[in-house]
C-alpha cells in the first residue's frame, strides 16, 4: 500500500490522504453517515488529471475504486481508492447558449446561483446541496420535472475518465453508446469529471409547501392524489407524510405529531398558482403555509429538507397509479404509533414531460410511471433490520402495481434483480454489455452495480 500512496502523491495535484492520516476522516465523509467508506487512501481531486492518476494507480495495484461526490445515495462502504470530487466545484454559464459547464463536485446550489443572474435555472433537485452530476447520472427528477422532464435529457456532453484511465468527451455524436448509458445508468462506466447541461428560462416560481395536521385530515394522501389528476405540466408537486418523534430538539408544536407536507413548484403566475392549489386547503387544518412567488434561488424552501448530514436508508417503487387502498397503507406506515423506526413516506407526481421520449434516447427507465413512492427512515446504530422490515411492509401493497424502481431514491444496497427492475429489459441487457466493454475487471464500485454481461 505504501507504493500506491507514493504513486498517487507523485502525480496528484490535490491532496492524498492515507488511512489514519490527518484529514482522512473528513475527506472520506459524505452527506450519508451510515456505513462510511473505509478506503486505503482518499484522493481529493482538483482536476480531471487527478482523477486519471487515481484510476491508473488503482488499476495498477488491483484496488477497487469508488467516487465520493455530493450525492445522497451511498449504500455500501468501499475500500481501495476513494476519489473525492468536492474540490472540483466550478460552474461556468454561457447565457447566450443557455448552457452551463458543471464540474463533478458542484452542488445544484452552485449551479442555481451561477445561472440566476441571467434569468436561467438548471433542472435541479429538491435539495440544493445534492451533487449535480450524480443526480443527473441517475436520471434526475426535480422541481421543474413535469414541465421539462429528466435532467439527464438536457445533458449535452460529459467528460469521463474510463477504467482504463482514458479521458473521453462523451456526446451523442462522438460516443453514442456511452452517452446513452450515462444518462440513467449511474456511475458504472467511468468517473465523470464534468458535464455541459442546458439551462431553462426560469427565474421565479410559485412554490413552497402546505403542512397539514394529518390527525385531522386522515384522507389527505388520497385527496392529494385525486387533486393531481388533470393538472397542467407547469405544476410539479409531491407529498411527504410522517410522525415526528417526541424529542426536545424539535419544535414543541410538532413533537409526536402526525403531519403531511404538500410541496408545490408551479411555473406560472402567483394568481393562477393560488387558484390551482385552493382545493388542497380544504383537505384539513393547515399548520403552516409557505406558498408564495419566490426566486428560484430559494427553491430549496419548497421541500425544506434537512441540511445536516445524517444516517438513513430508503426504498423506492415507481407505479403507474395509486389506488385508495395503497394510499391508506402508506398512511398507516407513516402514522403508526408502534413502528420501531420513523418511516417517512414521500410520493412524487410524475408524468407530463417525464413521460415523453427524449430527443436523444437515454437509459433512464419507466417513463410511463405516474408516481414515485419512497419510504425513508433516519437511523441509529442497530436499527437497520427494523427499518428493512418496516420498508418492506410499507411497500408490500404496491408490489403488484410496481413498474420498477428509481435508483436515485433507493438508499439501500440493492441486489441484481432490484437494480434490473430500474430499466427496460433490453436496456438493462445493453447496459451489462457496455459495463463489460468499459470495465471488464470491475475496477469501479458504483453505488448501484450493473453486472458484466455473461
Topology:
Layout lengths: L1 H10 L3 E4 L5 H5 L12 E4 L3 H13 L4 E4 L12 E4 L6 E4 L4 E5 L4 H8 L16 H6 L7 H4 L6 E7 L5 E4 L5 H7 L8 E8 L5 E10 L6 H9 L6 E9 L14 E9 L3 H12 L4 E4 L2 E4 L16 E8 L4 H12 L8 E6 L21 E8 L5 H12 L6 E3 L11 H5 L4 H14 L16
Parallel strand pairs: 2-4, 3-4
Antiparallel strand pairs: 1-2, 5-6, 6-9, 7-8, 7-9, 10-12, 10-13, 10-14, 11-12, 11-16, 15-17, 15-18, 16-17
Helix pairs in contact: 1-3, 10-11
Q: If you had to describe this structure to a student in words, what would you say it looks like?
A:
There is one protein chain. The protein is α+β, with helices and mostly antiparallel strands. The protein has three domains: 2-84, Uridine Diphospho-n-acetylenolpyruvylglucosamine Reductase, domain 2 (2-Layer Sandwich); 91-201 and 427-438, 2-Layer Sandwich (Uridine Diphospho-n-acetylenolpyruvylglucosamine Reductase, domain 3), CATH 3.30.465.10; 204-417, Vanillyl-alcohol Oxidase, Chain A, domain 3, CATH 3.40.462.20. The chain is built from 13 helices and 18 strands. It has helices spanning 2-11, 24-28, 48-60, 108-115, 132-137, 145-148, 176-182, 220-228, 270-281, 324-335, 384-395, 416-420, 425-438; strands spanning 15-18, 41-44, 65-68, 81-84, 91-94, 99-103, 155-161, 167-170, 191-198, 204-213, 235-243, 258-266, 286-289, 292-295, 312-319, 344-349, 371-378, 402-404. The strands form three sheets. Strands 10, 11, 12, 13, 14, 15, 16, 17 and 18 form a nine-stranded antiparallel β-sheet that branches. The chain has a five-stranded antiparallel β-sheet with strand order 5-6-9-7-8. Strands 1-2-4-3 form a four-stranded mixed β-sheet. Helix 1 runs antiparallel to helix 3 and helix 10 (324-335) packs antiparallel against helix 11. The chain is globular. The two termini are 32 Å apart. The model has no long low-confidence stretch (mean pLDDT 94).
Amino acid at each position: 500500500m505504501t507504493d500506491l500512496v507514493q504513486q498517487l502523491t507523485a502525480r496528484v495535484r490535490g491532496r492524498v490522504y492515507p488511512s489514519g492520516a490527518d484529514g482522512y476522516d473528513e475527506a472520506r465523509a459524505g452527506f450519508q453517515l451510515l456505513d462510511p467508506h473505509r478506503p486505503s487512501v482518499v484522493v481529493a481531486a482538483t482536476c480531471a488529471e487527478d482523477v486519471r492518476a487515481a484510476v491508473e494507480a488503482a488499476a495498477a495495484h488491483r484496488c477497487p475504486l469508488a467516487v465520493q461526490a455530493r450525492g445522497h445515495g451511498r449504500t455500501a462502504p468501499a475500500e481501495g481508492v476513494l476519489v473525492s470530487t468536492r474540490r472540483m466545484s466550478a460552474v461556468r454559464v454561457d447565457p447566450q447558449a443557455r448552457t452551463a459547464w458543471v464540474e463533478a463536485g458542484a452542488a445544484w446550489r452552485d449551479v442555481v446561483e451561477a445561472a440566476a443572474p441571467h434569468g436561467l435555472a438548471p433542472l435541479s433537485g429538491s435539495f440544493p446541496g445534492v451533487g449535480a452530476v450524480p443526480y443527473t447520472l441517475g436520471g434526475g427528477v426535480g422541481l421543474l420535472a413535469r414541465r421539462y422532464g429528466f435532467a439527464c435529457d438536457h445533458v449535452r456532453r460529459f467528460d469521463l475518465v474510463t477504467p482504463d484511465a482514458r479521458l473521453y468527451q462523451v456526446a451523442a455524436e462522438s460516443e453514442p453508446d456511452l452517452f446513452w448509458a450515462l444518462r440513467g445508468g449511474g456511475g458504472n462506466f467511468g468517473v465523470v469529471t464534468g458535464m455541459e447541461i442546458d439551462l431553462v428560462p426560469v427565474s421565479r416560481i410559485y412554490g413552497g409547501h402546505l403542512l397539514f395536521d394529518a390527525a385531522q385530515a386522515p384522507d389527505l394522501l388520497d385527496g392529494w392524489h385525486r387533486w393531481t389528476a388533470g393538472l397542467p405540466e407547469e405544476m410539479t408537486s409531491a407529498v411527504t407524510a410522517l410522525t415526528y418523534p417526541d424529542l426536545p430538539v424539535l419544535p414543541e408544536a410538532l413533537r409526536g405529531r402526525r403531519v403531511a407536507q404538500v410541496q408545490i413548484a408551479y411555473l406560472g403566475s402567483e394568481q393562477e398558482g393560488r387558484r390551482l392549489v385552493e382545493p388542497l386547503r380544504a383537505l384539513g387544518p393547515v399548520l403552516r403555509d409557505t406558498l408564495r412567488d419566490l426566486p428560484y434561488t430559494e427553491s430549496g424552501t419548497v421541500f425544506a429538507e434537512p441540511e445536516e448530514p445524517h444516517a438513513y436508508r430508503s426504498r423506492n417503487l415507481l407505479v403507474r397509479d395509486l389506488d385508495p387502498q395503497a394510499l391508506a397503507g402508506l398512511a398507516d406506515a407513516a402514522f403508526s404509533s408502534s413502528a420501531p423506526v420513523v418511516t417517512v413516506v414521500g410520493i412524487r407526481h410524475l408524468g407530463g414531460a417525464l413521460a415523453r421520449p427524449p430527443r436523444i434516447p437515454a437509459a433512464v427507465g419507466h417513463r410511463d410511471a405516474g408516481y414515485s413512492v419512497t419510504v425513508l427512515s433516519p437511523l441509529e446504530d442497530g436499527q437497520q433490520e427494523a427499518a428493512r422490515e418496516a420498508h418492506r411492509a410499507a411497500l408490500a401493497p404496491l408490489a403488484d402495481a410496481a413498474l420498477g424502481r428509481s435508483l436515485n431514491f433507493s438508499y439501500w444496497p440493492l441486489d441484481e434483480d432490484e437494480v434490473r427492475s430500474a430499466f427496460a429489459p433490453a436496456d438493462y441487457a445493453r447496459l451489462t454489455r457496455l459495463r463489460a466493454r468499459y470495465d471488464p475487471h470491475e475496477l469501479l464500485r458504483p453505488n448501484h452495480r450493473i453486472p458484466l454481461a455473461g
